[in-house]
């Protein structure tokens, strides 16, 4: 029996707590005897700490300790080197967190941090990615485990022989995730056990990391992650805040609250690498692609290799007989880049979907039609049919809803007073994967059910979606179901990331509920609770290796001030094919959020690095601009009714990232259509278009 | 330990002050470090963690509360300056039994995702609607002499000081619009 909870627009279960201010985030739990940690960033880029003078800080009222490499509790080496904090005097990048001041108040901790004197032996540094950087190399694989380069056919010959060619280089700057809640932790030790309330996207993996670092059995570590103020990838793994808080709490033997400052979120927690991307497309005169090449460069730190999978998007998006993708990396004296909403796909789609627009102009073809002409039912990379691919349907429905048919293809042909007006389109795709998870389901004598899983709701609506899925799997109205998430004492589950959360978690929830129903064949329990658990490791691991992707098409209309070059978004509309939608309300919010972040990438965001200091100078929300309320006039998201039996029991593809993929290209393509000027380095700031009436 | 008066007193008397002010209609008297911002007083000393710390620099709006009825960024205000003043936080917006119309509209319109900026959005919207009632213009108001009409453009402009990285903006505008229309 299905109760059809899935597919219905339930409001968020924690909505009331969030609008009344009673939802508690990581550093909002009252704790006896709590102290406050304040992290101290390094003042040099590359070098070695020669002396830490703590005298003045320790003499400041309220300061309890200055924890640094010379006195910090020891961590086990061997885990991710970025987490081996306060263990050695080496400095790898400016802003690396090299000490923590612990005090009885926030004010005292902050003042103490100002008073810590650190001397360094500083060396020369290299902090800027360039296409001719002498240290460019080919990594062994790209994030997480894709081949670095791919080649089919003969790209050079195919490209040389084609009648129509596009060769363009696109640049994207560093982007900083900037969730509204900083990375923050309350840590306390008791009888050798560590309890942390932490802001992260997956408490199971954070617990595993802490257990390894502090050499504890996993059962001795508990990570609670009830409410999380956003992550966008930057909280996808244990990060500096949780390790520093745990170290500091152990050092002072008191509970410690530690939140990174907004400024400290520009580096130590990861960011999206800058990219330099050359895309070459060749086509015949009717727009059919014959050769595709995408060469991507990005950076990592000297600490760790993180190779953004920028060109992977191009491997499966459009078909052509001759294809090549490459990735090259430079290890710079910078913080380690990390996941940011749709790593790889987001910057990669900006380049490819911009190049497709340039090809449409070169061929003299409508860009929607060009994409449909190069659609393919077979994954060009794997050579196998996609389990479902509704890119063309998204493009057609989007074109119809947006009113694309009336579009005059000529650039710079519409004017509304001082504004030049134009529209653009992009395709998008994102892998639809799942990871192993576990869950339990319990039937209570009172007729209620309790489902437990260490999923994380970072704002996606996961708590509500899993509650709906559980109700249907149990065959009961959702009002009879209680759901518990966000605690590492619950059954292990993977992170909220990679658009895999709902697919992975719902799989385990459904299996656990099915197992419980099997046990309950004799009826509901009358006295004791009855429980059943499930672990999907074998089932997920045994899934055939098929190309599974979500698709989308974004349409944007912009206006550009002919004199100042100011770009405003009139409207954006996206249509997506993402399998089954569990909750239309929360799904729409996520898709609109992703598209808005794409708008932000196109027009607003830019990490500006000063090479002299080797650090971003605009490291706050006044100078690192993210899209605000006044920037969003109209953004709409729609989806197709899609059923794909090769995905997972819930039939979902994941919607957290597909919204951003392609959105920046749609905006940039609209700017070209409005102005006739192609800006190939993001963001499209007004100074790049100033006096556009005289350009082009 | 629940935060209480004993927790609300710092030991360094040279740099502390006693301050009496109303919070959500309740008189509070605290002795605090002179450097303590209103935001930190609420969060660390009065166990009112609804107001959020997003940037601590007045750049994001997550800490917005109402001070004597006007919206302010509580991270930019020293508590020592608030003797005799009246503060309303997100915890004070709802009635004893039911949500305020604005809070209910935020839930109905799904005007938040992670919820971290939400208390600031709510307090900002509450203060903004009062500003409109008083006839205050905004940067996009065409006719400065006439009472402002609460168009979507007006709502967007007037809510521009409250960042939302989840980008619930269209739904925030819808929630404010619905609340204003129902009055």
From TrEMBL, chain A:
Family matches, as Pfam families: Ald_Xan_dh_C (PF01315), MoCoBD_1 (PF02738), MoCoBD_2 (PF20256)
Alphabetical UniProt keywords: Molybdenum, Oxidoreductase
Biased composition (Low complexity): 434-445
Upper classification of the organism: Bacteria, Bacillati, Actinomycetota, Actinomycetes, Micromonosporales
Name of protein: Xanthine dehydrogenase family protein molybdopterin-binding subunit
Gene3D superfamilies, per database record: Aldehyde oxidase/xanthine dehydrogenase, a/b hammerhead, Aldehyde oxidase/xanthine dehydrogenase, molybdopterin binding domain
SUPFAM superfamilies: CO dehydrogenase molybdoprotein N-domain-like, Molybdenum cofactor-binding domain
Annotated Basic and acidic residues bias: 406-418
Residue span(s) of domain Aldehyde oxidase/xanthine dehydrogenase a/b hammerhead: 20-124
Region listing for Disordered, in residue ranges: 406-448
GO MF: iron ion binding; oxidoreductase activity
UniProtKB/TrEMBL annotation, chain B:
Family matches, as PROSITE patterns: 2FE2S_FER_1, 2FE2S_FER_2
Key word Metal-binding present: yes
CDD domains according to UniProt: fer2
Domain of life the protein comes from: Bacteria
InterPro entries: 2Fe-2S-bd, 2Fe-2S-bd_dom_sf, 2Fe-2S_ferredoxin-like_sf, 2Fe-2S_ferredoxin-type, 2Fe2S_fd_BS, Aldehyde_Oxdr_Iron-Sulfur, Beta-grasp_dom_sf
Presence of keyword Metal-binding: yes
Pathway: Alkaloid degradation; nicotine degradation
One Pfam family from the record: Fer2
Domain 2Fe-2S ferredoxin-type: residue ranges: 17-93
Keywords for the protein's UniProt record, in alphabetical order: 2Fe-2S, Iron, Iron-sulfur, Metal-binding, Oxidoreductase
Segments traversing the membrane: none
Coiled coil (UniProt feature): none
Gene Ontology MF terms in the entry: 2 iron, 2 sulfur cluster binding; metal ion binding; oxidoreductase activity, acting on the aldehyde or oxo group of donors
The protein's name: 2Fe-2S iron-sulfur cluster binding domain-containing protein
Organism ancestry: Bacteria, Bacillati, Actinomycetota, Actinomycetes, Micromonosporales
